[in-house]
Every structure is written in C-alpha cells, then in structure tokens.
Design brief:
globular; 6-stranded mixed sheet; two-stranded antiparallel sheet; single chain; 276 residues
Length: 276
C-alpha cells in the first residue's frame, strides 16, 4: 500500500463514519440535473507527505499524472487563466464568454508587485527568495485576493503555499479551504508534490515534506457509493518519481520532464458526476 492510499483511506473513513451532513442547509453547488449537491464533511484535516521517502500518488484508482502536471504548469508556469491553453477539460464548466476563468489561479500569480529589490510576480519572488533569502520565513504565495473575488469563476480552493528551507531541504505547506475527496484530493497532492520537487531542484535544494491542510474536507452525496466501492479496491506500492535532472530553470520544465516508474493502480471505470 502506498502512504497516499493509507492517508486517503483514513480520511475517507473518518468522513463517512463520523462526518457532518449539510442536508439541512442551502448549498451553492448543483448537479447537472439542477439538484443541490450536498456533502458530508470533517473539519481541519492535516496530512503530511515525506517526498524523500515516497511519491504521494494513490493506487486505489488511477490519478491522471500528466493531466495533473499540465494543469500545474498552466497555473504556476504559464500563469494563465485561458482554458484553451490547458490540454484537459477540467475547467470547461467555469469558462466565461472570453474563454477564461476570470482573475483566478494563474492570473493572480502573474500580477507583479513592488518589493525593495524590484518588481516580481508571486512565482518569481519565491524563486528569488529560495536562492537569495533561504532563511526567510516570508516565502509564500496567495491566490485569495479579496479585491478580485467577484471577477473569479471559482474562488480558489487550494489558495496558498508557504515554502520553508531547513538546511538543504525545501518543505512546504499547501492550504486548501475546500476539498472534494473523490475528484480532487490526490490530484492536488500530486500537483503540489511535483511543485515542491520543481522549486527544490532549480534552487539547489532537496524536496522534503509537503503538508496539506484542508479546512472543509468533504464527500458529495452522489459520490458516497463510489468512494465506498473504491475503498474496497486492491492497493499497490507507490511508483518511483522521475524528474529531468538537467532542468535548472523553472520555466524550462515541460510535461515530459516528469515520469512515474512502475505505476500500478486498481481499475475504476465508474463515471464520476461533477458538482458545479
């Protein structure tokens, strides 16, 4: 069993066995047929992944590794909000008439800000500090810009990263206000584990620990039987993660810079409905 599988199982069982339902409240998300998408949830989940020991991809079902990275590069490297620049269709439901998701995600990372050393956007400031100020306790990004929320198709779920260097090791905390366990949990874990590896390599550091903090950790009502079925699946060992060691420029990474060796996973062919 991979460690990611173990944490996923424990979290889902905690939600299903001890979670709180919101069926007595009006909720924003809707299913395709217009019915309210209710959830059962727990509050304040903290999962820790040691990236030196294992790559945190689950095997209870397949996580689309290349699509995860494609979206990660779209947000963090291209700093884009244009859906056409993304190869998957995960954001199609939130695209506006201009084909963007508004001032969300990559847009926020692209905005330059004034610092004593000059103008930087959020990503370039992190890269600068990791090389020049590794002892800083201010190396972080935030996508939750209250001034722009009304122009975002979706308020950011995974909204902040805090980077911290200990010796030659880069650790990070991912803060997430809301987490759909079936569709998004391991997707986000994989993405931000890769991001820590990327940031570490181009800064001459080793990837250390990713701490994932989730405020509202939930399973949608129509996902419950799918999660129960998936938790009965066979598990496998985690695959080995490979990253092109020759890349020293954060903006030179491509989807092909990353691979998994011997990624085995249980079959799971059920169609997963998405609440919007």
């Amino acid at each position: 069993m991979s460690y990611a599988d173990r944490l996923y199982r424990e979290t889902c069982r905690q939600i299903l066995d001890h979670g709180v339902w919101d069926t007595d409240r009006a909720v924003r998300p809707r299913w395709e047929d217009g019915a309210p998408a209710h959830t059962v949830k727990i509050f304040g989940v903290v999962n820790r992944y040691n990236l030196q020991e294992e790559f945190p991809i689950m095997t209870l079902r397949r996580t689309a590794f290349r699509s995860c990275i494609d979206e990660l590069l779209w947000i963090w490297q291209k700093k884009s909000n244009r859906v056409a620049e993304l190869h998957s269709h995960v954001w199609d439901a939130w695209a506006d008439e201009n084909g963007t998701i508004g001032k969300a995600y990559g847009y926020q990372l692209s905005v330059p800000h004034q610092y004593p050393e000059g103008m930087f956007d959020q990503v370039d400031r992190v890269l600068y500090d990791l090389k020049h100020n590794p002892a800083s306790r201010r190396i972080l990004t935030s996508l939750y810009n209250f001034q722009d929320l009304h122009e975002m198709a979706l308020y950011p779920c995974a909204y902040s990263m805090t980077f911290n260097v200990s010796g030659d090791t880069l650790n990070a905390i991912l803060n997430q206000r809301s987490q759909d366990m079936l569709t998004a949990n391991n997707w986000n874990v994989v993405q931000y584990a890769v991001l820590v590896h990327m940031m570490a390599q181009v800064s001459g550091l080793r990837a250390g620990e990713l701490v994932h903090v989730i405020a509202d950790c939930h399973i949608y009502d129509r996902h419950v039987p799918l999660v129960e079925k998936m938790l009965r699946n066979e598990e496998f060992d985690a695959p080995a993660f490979r990253m092109d060691p020759s890349v020293t420029d954060f903006y030179a990474f491509t989807v092909d810079s990353f691979s998994l060796e011997d990624y085995r996973y249980a079959p799971f062919s059920e169609k997963i409905p998405v609440a919007v």
